[in-house]
Each structure stands twice: as structure tokens, then as C-alpha cells.
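All the exercises in this workshop are built on plain-text protein records. The record below serves as our worked example for the rest of this section.
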Amino acid sequence: MWKRLAQIPIKHPLAFGVGISTVKTSASDLLVQTVVEGRQTKDIDWKRNAAFATFGCFYLGGVQYAIYVPIFGRLFSNAASFAAKPIRDKLKDVKGMIALCGQVFLDQFVHHPLMYFPVFYGTRELVMSEKPDLMAAMSTYKTNMKEDLAALWKVWVPSTFINFAFMPMWARVPWVAGTSLIWTCILSAMRGGRCGAQRRYGSPLSYREYSYFDQGES
């Protein structure tokens, strides 16, 4: 039985990646809402959780699989063979090291700033806001960009080097999903507040902060 289960991510990498990314992203946000923000079950923001789950399903599971496996596999044809080599042989493979750095650069300095975060802010706006305003969402991202990218790179640059250097192609999305357990908690704590909070108060607010201001205005 365990052998069959172990074959699932190898035989069905896309479906496995989508499933694990959806569950993981939703669970990470719920963890932040209940443990970090101290919400009771009745106070959980299910719209916010749906935004994270939707983002996890379609983007983290689907789009990132397409980027990391077929696209990067074609752009860097030696990626799979390089990942399978022992460390001693990796250090001797100059072309493989250049390809590794190229993958990390494209992922962290092109893909994430230009695709990942815009899609995240757009998804969050569409799911959570009563009157979605995508231009306002992009403006919020522009304001938060330096802080968002600094937080992202602290987690993802080392993780991405490990991923592209050692993981077989089918394991790239599961590795990302594992690292993202931590990252999604950080992102949820940083940017999980109500969509209009930053436009109203100057920064995204936690549940406790929003409740305090909301009660004071009522």
C-alpha cells in the first residue's frame, strides 16, 4: 500500500501538486487565523481562506508546475540530469551550475515579482472584496513590493537553490509545497487582512487590529 502511495506524486505530479498545494495553503491560513491571530472558529474569515485556497489550487499547484517542470525543463535541458548527480560531480559541472543559477534567477527575480505577487493580490481582491478593484490591488502590491520581496527572498532563495539542485522534476512542486507551509503562514500574517484595510488605514490590519478600529467607528 505504501509503495502505491509513494508512486502517486511520480505518476501524477500535476494532480498531486494541485491537491497538496490547495490543502496546504488553506491549512496554513487557518493556522495563522486561529493560532497567531487568536480567532475563534466562529470568527474565521472564510472568504480570506477561500482566497488562499484558490490561489494554492490554480497558481501554486497548476501554474508553478508548468513553470518548474515543462518550461524550465525545456529552457534548461540539463536540469534533470544535473539534479541527479552527486554533489562532487555537480561542482565540476560548470554548465549545470550556470543553469542552476539561471533557474533561480528567473524564478525569484522575474517570475515572483512579475507573476506570483500580482496574481496573489488579484485573487485576494476578487475573492475577498465586495467590490473588486484590480487596479487598487496592483497599487497595494506596488506599495508593499519591497517588504514582500524581502520576506520572500529570505525563505525562497535558499529553498529554490536546494529544489533545483537536488530534486527530481516530479518532486519540484512537492518541495515547493513543503517550504510553502512556512511561507504561506508568513504571507497570511502579512497580507491576510481585509482588502480595504490598507487603503483605509495605511497598512493591512490583523483581525484584532481591524476589530478594534471597526468597533471604534461603529
Summary: The CA atoms of residues 149 and 199 lie 20 Å apart. Confidence is low (pLDDT under 50) at residues 199-218. The longest helix spans residues 94-128. DSSP finds ten helices and no strands in the chain.
